[in-house]
């Protein structure tokens, strides 16, 4: 049965929004079907208009891979759009093309989410899945905000791990301007957050890579090798410039105090790490018999 667009009209109760309706009633038509069809058709038209006029279409999302906020122009690499494009394996609501290749798809979800096999296909073919969940016909009034902030965008700006293919997380160095734990003179203390790749969520200079050491020293942190009588080893440590005391790596209460305090902090992106590889390595270690 053919579905047609009903333009907005003024009634005694106000202005009725544009919507889609069947020319003739059909038992297969449900409010969910009409909402799904209306939203995807209006959205495809909007995207097409932006492509023709060469306008940007802002998009932002909470990344499910690195847990950061990403934003950009949805149409940066898009030159055409198709509704219900047949991809043999699936037929997405909206397909966004870069030249003759599907670059991303938009799935409008009212009741049925994309099947796992379909999501696996998108991932295998490097096709970005953008999912928009709808609750009621009120969402038709929020079309712009729905595409500007989708419920799911299955991609990340971070590079993928060459070993396992998962998206990596940023490795962050934090330099804290605070007091020496012993003489209370001002000193810079540095830590690195590298997820499960290293021995803790935040690690001291003893586990730094060369680039991290160089950045810390260039930023005014004093790092020297010191002997720790508790662990009975030498390792690189944060040093107080006044009393020459070092902040031991095992002193995690000191690290926590620095990070959770109101002291001035500076964060630096110093590369990437793969939590998935770290997790796989941990699983292998605990499952290997002695």
Description:
Helix content is about 25%, strand content about 35%. The protein has about 290 residues and is α+β, with helices and mostly antiparallel strands. A 5-stranded mixed beta sheet has the order 7-8-9-10-11, sandwiched between helices. Strands 14-13-12-18 form a 4-stranded antiparallel beta sheet, with helices on both faces. A 3-stranded antiparallel beta sheet has the order 15-16-17. The protein is elongated.
Give a concise summary.
By secondary structure, the chain is α+β, with helices and mostly antiparallel strands.
Q: How does the SSE layout of this entry go?
A:
Blueprint: E1 3-6, E2 9-11, E3 14-16, E4 19-22, H1 31-52, E5 58-62, E6 69-73, E7 80-83, E8 94-98, E9 101-109, H2 116-124, E10 128-133, H3 143-148, E11 152-153, E12 169-179, E13 186-193, E14 202-203, H4 210-218, E15 223-228, E16 233-239, E17 246-247, H5 252-260, E18 264-273, H6 275-287
Parallel strand pairs: 9-10
Antiparallel strand pairs: 1-4, 2-3, 5-6, 7-8, 8-9, 10-11, 12-13, 12-18, 13-14, 15-16, 16-17
For the biggest β-sheet, the strand order reads 7-8-9-10-11
Largest sheet, in brief, is: 5 strands, mixed
Q: Approximately what portion of the residues adopt beta-strand conformation?
A: 25-35%
For the termini, the CA-CA separation is 68 Å
Radius of gyration: 27 Å
Structural class, from helix and strand content?
A: alpha+beta
Regions with pLDDT < 50 over 5+ consecutive residues?
A: none
Shape: elongated
Number of strands: 18
The ordered string of helix (H) and strand (E) elements is: EEEEHEEEEEHEHEEEEHEEEHEH
Distinct helical segment count? 6
The portion of residues assigned to helices is: 10-25%
Could you report the average pLDDT, rounded to the nearest whole number? 86
